Amino acid sequence: MGERIERLVSMFSPDRAMKMASVRVQTKAAEEYLAKAGGGYYRKGRGERQLASWLTDDSDANAALQGGTLQQLRNDSNDLYQNNTVAAGAVNTKVTNIIGPGLRLNAQIDADALGMTFDEAKEWEANTEKEWKIFSKTCDITREMSFEEQQALVLRSTLINGDHFINLPVINRRNQGVIYQTSTNHIEAHRISNPSGMSDSDSLIMGVALNKLGQHTTYHAASKHPGSFMGGNTAQTWAPLKVWNRSGSRNVLHVYKKLRANQVRGVPDLAPIIEILKNLDTFTQAEIHNAVVSSFFSVFITTETEGNPLNMPSEDSPDSTKDLALGPGAIFKLQDNEKVEFADPSRPNANFDMFFKAVVTQIGMALEIPFEVLMKQFQSSYSASKGALMEAWKMFFASRTWMAESFCQPVYERFLLEAVALGRIQAPGFNDDPLIRMAWCGSQWVGPPAGDLDPQKAVKAAKERIELGISNEFIETSERGLDFSQVLKGRVQAHKMKEEAGLLPEIGQNEENSSNNGENGENNDVED
């Protein structure tokens, strides 16, 4: 039976028939082996009806994406992001919480390794951060995005397309008032492809050239997007972008998450749930249309006799244009054998909300976003909402670290390289010893803090961590997206301004107020 089906399939799709034959032979061999060994698969075996039509293969990470598969995944993901509310909400939720207004540089050099005092290190870090602000405002080759906006673009593009490329060319723009020549040129994933449609090989896979060690050496970038209408009849050309320059610095950044060994290109974040998202969207649209149609109140008059229902005028009558309208308290006399029936489509569907939430919960599981966070609904208990936020922030913080290491830090190191060469930043030994360069390049990328369901409890917990010695002001402020040195400076300035304005309390007043609060205060902490 299986062989006959394979012959029939081969008439339309020889490749699929070959895969079916391979699976059939492998399954039969495995069943014979397991029968002799006395073991078996779960669900009794692949020969059972439930799994008989389940075709799998042993494709490696790249073969699973070749043959137009990756391109189709990108197209589907882009369409879902543009037209599907759940897909767009999931991507935007990640970008908002991982990047927010942007990851801010907090220079953290290794003062001990560099033989610097604490004050010297803080002075160097403050000066470097000022120079970085100059660079971050002008580094975009188009001069349209700040570095913070570029972070959001890189993450969003990576989530939707699977990967994103950033070329770091050196362009003289001093005539435009730009100090630093290092630029960031963003390249969408679609443009990285094999030149002139060349077939993949061991050394060229989906636009990425590799050496014998599997290292990325060159990215082939098309002159325009394959779906672009710009350029008229201009022929498509490809430019080879070398990954490394002669000094060993990286020329091109390839931002993607490697899910399997030897994987060359990234996979869209929505790839595992594209089908379920599309089906949910189709179901939702159908329910909306049904609800709209059902909102039109319809009445049907059925009769078993000839003639006009309800004695309505005939078409030849002068009153043929007269309409029969329903109205409050209206009474109509029906003819013999006539009755009125009302359309009842049973819409809206009473089970729609329950079904929708169940499917969205599965979507959230695949994206590591709890249902409450994905749907922005915190209607459960305090503990349940807190747990959902904690699980979401595990993923947000991990992704933030990945973004910092994949995009922010490499660009920062290229900036330092040029700043030291220009003499705007003093870093002795920067180009002499890799360990010294690493010490100068130390940094922390601070993003938006996790939200607090109960800010009073969060402050109390932070205070206790500091008092116990398991944390400090630098850690607590950085977790809230702030710089303790700036916070302290602001407090000093505020205290000085209050003192000059005569707004500071008199000596002893604070102690008296604290004593009164201790006697009359109430414990407002409420548990579930």
Main features:
3-stranded antiparallel beta sheet, single chain, alpha+beta, disordered C terminus, 4-stranded antiparallel beta sheet, extended, 528 residues
Describe the structure.
This protein has 528 residues and is an alpha+beta fold. Among the domains are: 2-44, no CATH class; 282-313 and 330-365, no CATH class; 454-505, no CATH class. Helices cover 46% and strands 9% of the residues. It contains 16 helices and eleven strands. The protein has helices at residues 2-10, 14-37, 69-83, 85-98, 111-114, 118-138, 147-161, 274-294, 352-367, 371-375, 382-422, 434-440, 455-468, 473-479, 484-501, 509-520, and strands at 104-107, 163-167, 185-188, 204-205, 208-210, 216-222, 238-242, 252-256, 299-303, 338-342, 443-446. A four-stranded antiparallel sheet has the order 4-5-6-7, with no helix packed on it. A three-stranded antiparallel sheet has the order 3-2-8. A hairpin with a 2-residue loop joins strand 4 (204-205) and strand 5 (208-210). The radius of gyration is 33 Å and the shape is extended. Mean pLDDT is 84; it is low at 521-528.
Helix percent reads 40-55%
* CA-based shape: extended
How many strand units?
11
Radius of gyration: 33 Å
Share of residues in strands: 5-15%
Query: How would you state the average pLDDT, rounded?
Result: 84
Largest sheet: 4 strands, antiparallel
**DSSP helical segment count:** 16
Structure class: alpha+beta
Reading the helices and strands in chain order gives: HHHHEHHHEEEEEEEHEEHHHHEHHHH
Distance separating the two termini: 62 Å
Query: In which order are the strands of the major sheet placed?
Result: 4-5-6-7
Contiguous uncertain segments of 5+ residues: 521-528
